[in-house]
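Per-residue structure
===
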Amino acid sequence: MFKIQTLNKIDPEGLKIFPLDKYEIASEFNNPDAIIVRSQAMHDMELPASLLSIARAGAGVNNIPVEKCTEKGIVVYNTPGANAHAVKEILIAGMLLASRDISGAIEWAKTLKGKGSEVPGLVEKGKSNFGGTEIRGKTLAVIGLGAIGVLVANAAQALGMNVIGYDPYISVAHAWKLSRNVKKAEGLDSLLANADFVSIHIPQMPETKGFINKDKLKMMKNGVKILNFSRGGLVKNQDMIEAIESGKVGKYVTDFPEDELIDVKNIIAIPHLGASTEESETNCAIMAVTQVIDYLENGNIVNSVNFPTAEMERNGGTRILVANKNVPKMVSQISALLAHEGLNISNMLNKNRDEIAYNIIDIDGTVPATIKNMISEIEGVVMVRILPPK
């Protein structure tokens, strides 16, 4: 019986996928096999020896100690694309808010309360203070063409915008989904110089922190409108505030309010609503649960942020899973040990990612219980699992 610990409220549509004859689900477990989490911080948590995987029902994994997990052989998943449509929709709303002073106009309209029959006339007199521009015909720069970036680019193009995308690492799968009318930028400098709107869709990592800063802002058009629905740390707040105050940036719309950004004129701070839809939470939970089940029962890995993608059909026999440091001669040592024990390998997959390698090894029939300890004793091995015949 596998034990699944939930650290946040996880959508029940996802949790009900777990077969109750194989899984226990609770918010409190001493020795869980897997954890499903949304936003709860895990950096100070003690990770039990039983823990095999952590699934984040969402895209960002800043709340999970990924490096520590890798060292312990714990597979960390996220759910890229599960909330993509929700983020795409709120970003389009953000562009409209940046183009038309809708929020300011709504707040002004509230001041007319109590004016009785004067309200229609006051509206006609005051509405000219809240004029704006259309987004049709404007140029949108989309930086990062992952699941969300592609949807944003396609939607903006369908609304009549001139869309230019930039992503030197775009995957084949995402490239196939991108509208043929979205232009490709060869470099960032020319992209930023020609954009009326700039939308960021890149992960936050040490090398991308402060990606939008004083130097990049200088490259942009005067009055440019910038949208950040990815991560707050991608933008240097003080540089953005200075650009807003000077008029270099016309509007900054962010889904990540911080104290210095709140109540600053021409900064629209939305309280992290990007993925806050019923459909998004359900999709994230379903994807997270499906990935956990496939890993616990079959050892397959998809959408991991610290382990390589590795999938192999079961052959009916015993499956051995080994994670090891990505150093030479590991596969040969493991294979030699199995051969010495008289075990026939019917199929084998070896994948690596950065400092970690992962092996799926199918054996005809059953294997002795001692094999797990024997493989674990090989220097460089960080995790061994034995899955019984299926």
The chain has a mean pLDDT of 95. The chain is about 30% helix and 20% strand.
